[in-house]
Amino acid sequence: MDKTYEVFYDEIADYLEIFIGSPTECYTEEIEPGIMVRKDEKTDEVKSIGIFSFKKRAIVLKKILEKMNLKFPLDVSI
After folding, report:
1. Distance, CA of 69 to CA of 78 (rounded, Å)
2. How far is CA 37 from CA 44, 71, in A?
3. 46: nearest Cα among 36, 54, 34, 32
4. Contact criterion met (CB below 8 Å) for 19 and 5
5. pTM for the model
6. Is 18 left (phi over 0), alpha (psi -120 to 50) or beta?
7. Which residue(s) pair with 63 in the sheet?
8. Is 2 helix (H, G, I), strand (E, B) or coil?
9. Domain segments of the chain as ranges
10. 39 confidence band (pLDDT: 50, 70, 90)
11. What is the dihedral angle through the alpha carbons of 54, 71, 63, 69, rounded to the nearest 10 degrees?
């Protein structure tokens, strides 16, 4: 099944959020301080990953995506 991805970055707040698939009703979990995951209320499917202080945590994003086996058709450079 194909999924769509949308990336939002606020440079002033240094906040990155990656949205996965269509929006649904979600709940949020903080998986590490400053790293939030939003999951679908019914399926527990990951719908977005939000990272505060992104530039300082870029390596964490790579590890999370590898752990979740998510692949993106883009390169992110900071």
Report:
1. 22
2. 11, 17
3. 36
4. yes
5. 0.69
6. beta
7. none
8. coil
9. 5-67
10. very high
11. 140
> What's the pLDDT band for 38 if we cut at 50, 70, 90?
very high
- Asked if residue 28 has pLDDT above 60, the reply is yes
Q: How many residues does the chain have?
A: 78
b (16+ CB within 10 A) / e for 20-56: bbeeeebeeeeeeeebbbbbbeeeeebbbbbbbebee
Residue with tokens 């019914």: 42
For residue 48, give both structure tokens.
């977005």
Structural element, H or E, at residue 65:
helix 54-67
Joined together, the tokens standing for residue 1 give 């099944």
